[in-house]
Structures are given as C-alpha cells and as structure tokens.
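Consider the following input, taken from an annotated entry for C-type lectin domain-containing protein (Panagrolaimus davidi).
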Amino acid sequence: MFYIFFLVFFYFIFSTNATCPLGSIPFISDKTGCLYFPKDKTYFLDAELACTNLSGHLPSVHNKMENMFLSQEALKIFTESTDSDFWFGANDINSSPKWSWMDNTPFDYENWDKAQPQNISDNDCGAIIMEGGKWKAANCYMQKSYVCMVSPLIHSTTVASITTLSFGTTVEMGTTPVGDDCTDTISDCAKTAYACTDDKYKSVMCTLCKKTCNLCPNNTTDPCAGVVTVSTLPPPTAGSQCIDTATNCGATSYECKNSLYKPIMCKYCKKTCNLCNDPHCSTYFD
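Applying the prediction step yields:
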C-alpha cells in the first residue's frame, strides 16, 4: 500500500507570510521556531548535523513551559520508539562540566533528573525523558530519536522553486510541457509541490496535482503509468459507517488540523480527524 504519511521536510521560496513546514509544529513560546520530529534514530552529533542540514539545530529550552511542550509532543509522536528519551540541544562536549546549547543561546534553564548530570566519560550529550520531561546526560555515541528546531517557511502565492532539505535538490517547476487536458484537481498543489519528486507521494500527486508536478503524459511517456491513484482506493463511508481507510492515522493525527493536509485526511483519516460530517471533505474528491 502506498503510504502518504511519511513526511519530508521542505522549503518553498516565497515572499510574504511565515508558516511551519508540513510535518513540523509551531513551538509553544517561540513563534519564530518550528519543531520537526524525524523518524530515524542516530548519534548526537549526527542528529545535530541532520538539523543543520534543515537550517536548524537540536532545540534549546528556556523555561518550564517549553520543556513540557517539547517532551509531551515527543511522547505523542515517537510512539514507535523503544527508547524512553530523545536528543535535544544540551551538551558539554567542548566545555565540561559547563553545559550549553547547540544554537548558542543562553543556558538559562535546567530540568535535570535526580543525580544528573553524571560526570562520566562520553556522557556529554543531553536527552529528555519523555515521561515527565526530566533531563539526563547520555553517551553521545548512543543512537536515539531527536528533534530539530527549524525556521518557518516564508511564502506567497507564486512558487519560484522547491528545495528539498535532505540533499539540497532543486526542482524548477513548469519545465515540462503539459497537455491542455492535464489539470490539478485541488487548488493547493503549489503549497504541496515539495512532494512532486518524492516517489512516496506519487500516488497522491498523480491524482491531485498532475499539472503542477509535470506528471502529464506526452508523446513518449506517461509518468503516472502503472501508479495506483488515490481515486482508485476505497473511499471512507458516510455517517455512522465513517471509517479510516489508512492504518496509521493515529500516528499522524497531529496533522488533522493542518489545512494543507485536509484533502488527504478527508480521504484516509476521516474518523480519527473527526471529519465525518465536514461538508468540505466532499469537495476534494468529486
């Protein structure tokens, strides 16, 4: 089955308002920051490198509310993790025993667990225990889940280019001629065009955004040939029989209120997202 909920991080190059990228959430007190929760586990410095590749850092925490929000969101999102904690930006790698943040902001708040931080060799990297939000010093060479603090997107109505944050691949839109009968079936394709070159999204984009993604057939090839499109999958039933048609709706329920994902959640996660009686859902897949 094609999984539409494996989220990638992305940037649109736009010009006006700022919003968090898909797959991330606004930080509770720092409205200029967004939290992204990758699904992989890695070593502390590799986690920081992954965050810097997204133009961010492992997060710093400056008050009790931020700490509680970060640990609670991790607890909700890292449901498949076998670990009880995750990497964040606290460390004393270069300044032991003085702790600091990877983003170089002031280290003005601490929430260490009992007997922490332990002054043990290689325990120079900070981890937050999801249950309770206490901190501990952990071995930097352990692989753990991690969180990135990144900047929001700056956007307007005109897309110039899309850059994936994983390896910096840039895709210029509109470079392939399309037929007059090739159209998008939703109005938000420009906002989700980051998925045009990601095979994990191809089923959805072939259904909803053929024109924007340059997926229209030409004289020699049909980019969507053999792809099982969304329209061929079973739709949710109405009323009391309203169900989810995907198996991982619970793990992605934090996207229920994300307007950019609404067509997808209407199609696959109506029950989980309480969209069974939403009149707008019927307009997306007529």
